[in-house]
Amino acid sequence: MPAKGKHRRPKSSPVTRGMVAAGTGGAALAIPLLGATGAHAAAKPAAPVAAPQTVRAAAPAAAQQAAPATYEVKSGDCLSRIAEDHRLGDWHRLYRDNRDVVGADPSLIRPGMKLTLGAKPRAAAPQDTARTSAERAPATDPSASGAAPAEAATTATTGQGTASGFRAPLDSVSIGTPYRMAGSMWSSGYHTGVDFAAETGTPVKAVGAGTVVSAGWGGAYGNQVVVRHADGMYSQYAHLSQLAVAEGQSVTEGQQLGLSGATGNVTGPHLHFEIRTTPDYGSDVDPLAYLRQQGASL
Questions:
Q1: Under CATH, which architecture does the 69-117 domain have?
Q2: With 0-12 CB in 10 A as exposed, 13-18 as middle and 19+ as buried, what is 298?
Q3: pLDDT tens digits, residue range 181-223?
Q4: Nearest-CA neighbor of 139 among 198, 196, 191, 94?
Q5: In terms of CATH architecture, what is 142-293?
Q6: Of 70, 91, 157, 231, whose CB is crowded by the most CB atoms within 10 A?
Q7: Do residues 277 and 283 make contact, with C-beta atoms less than 8 angstroms apart?
């Protein structure tokens, strides 16, 4: 038998340790024992006190990074361009976040409006289950991506008026997607107008004198203007960023109707132009042929 007190440690030790064997079905498990002095020592926190402070200090910085920004609308802006420039994805999210500022018509944003960017978590826009025939027009416009199709040769002419009183809708004309180009992206199976390359903010002008029969949101066409001319034909100007006329207003040849843009279903800014026999989608005729018959230089 070991001598009494053989395993005692010096009294100067702050911790009294020992081992006890606990039976575990024939096996022994050594369990350390702490004396009263050791228990008080173990109760002290092992981690540095500064660690929780470090975590708390990092939280405000992360919140500051996630704070939304504010953007002031400038002349020539449209929601799609703002969303693209700030990498917000689809413009519908930007509109949902700022509906109380913009109002019921997402195309009619005005200089000076303050929009909140990134105010809410990004979410997929719900599908529109009740779309009109005009809204079932092209989901995207091929010419808007910047590269015109091979079969759509780009030409550049002046759009100034002629003695006949008709002209091109832009002062400088560069033709992208042509009329009647076939494609499954269009509900009619073909392009119902002609696209003119135009950066956002380019003045769009009436091809001839007439009366404005529509000025506002046109579904897939975005912000549009439709003008009725003296011969009973109609001209349509779509994807505008801003409007300069109102329904019922009389306009003259060359009068500014608005500014080009990328509202509606497009992948980039341009002017979609149609000539129709009625004010409605589906009554289109060749727009360039019509203008040339009226004496416009194209």
A1: Roll (3.10)
A2: middle
A3: 987 676 667 899 999 999 999 999 999 999 999 999 999 899 9
A4: 191
A5: Distorted Sandwich (2.70)
A6: 91
A7: yes
